[in-house]
Amino acid sequence: xxxxxxxxxxxxxxxxxxxxxxxxxxxxxxxxxxxxxxxxxxxxxxxxxxxxxxxxxxxxxxxxxxxxxxxxxxxxxxxxxxxxxxxxxxxxxxxxxxxxxxxxxxxxxxxxxxxxxxxxxxxxxxxxxxxxxxxxxxxxxxxxxxxxxxxxxxxxxxxxxxxxxxxxxxxxxxxxxxxxxxxxxxxxxxxxxxxxxxxxxxxxxxxxxxxxxxxxxxxxxxxxxxxxxxxxxxxxxxxxxxxxxxxxxxxxxxxxxxxxxxxxxxxxxxxxxxxxxxxxxxxxxxxxxxxxxxxxxxxxxxxxxxxxxxxxxxxxx
Length: 317
Known about the structure:
The protein has about 325 residues and is mainly beta. The protein is about 5% helix and about 40% strand.
């Protein structure tokens, strides 16, 4: 067994067939920022929407360099995939501000007949920018843990004529209030397409699509596109300063035959979600057999925040 095979089997729990195993010391591996649809007449404008996506920052390969320790590197190499935001946020209950989120997507497709399960696993870490010390009334004014609103990973899937989004989101803070809990993608009942698009009639996006940025948000941390994982509170590692990174593991497994969640995992905790249905809508044109994995991160304040992905594995069975 090669070193690469040993690392794969030791660090991950792949299903029978590995679609991609991406270690970012080897390059971008097809991951890129999530772009708007430049499709409209006459100058390749974007379709009408209230969520401006042309300010989402690009993804990059990063050696995780910080002011004090220098180059941190990745979990087992030099480079990780870095998602960032701009220093621009809006209150939680409002639509996402321009540049307040960062995304990475890889565009794949189903290739094996009758495959049932699809799974994504990754080693990650997250932190905020050390741009300034906050007001002295805070217990640790130089620790910006609550600047990070949320991050997560999931899939954009279309098969058998229906499209659906699945994912796990760590809701870290809401308007400065710590939340520290996991949620899974599922749109709330009674929500209309107009509600989903923050009140705009005729947005190209339908309820259930792109929950990373669509869907109303509510003061207690609820979201029209996410539901709380039962017993889903978990304190992740955010070390004593913003430049100390601890690599952590997360995994999401989906049953595409029964269209339901199977498991989510972070660190050593596993949540059994079997019987929890996904939320499917009529399929879109030209994207049958879509299987696009996605990562994202969102800031809670006017400060840049970052999500680093050391390596990621997508597999099927």
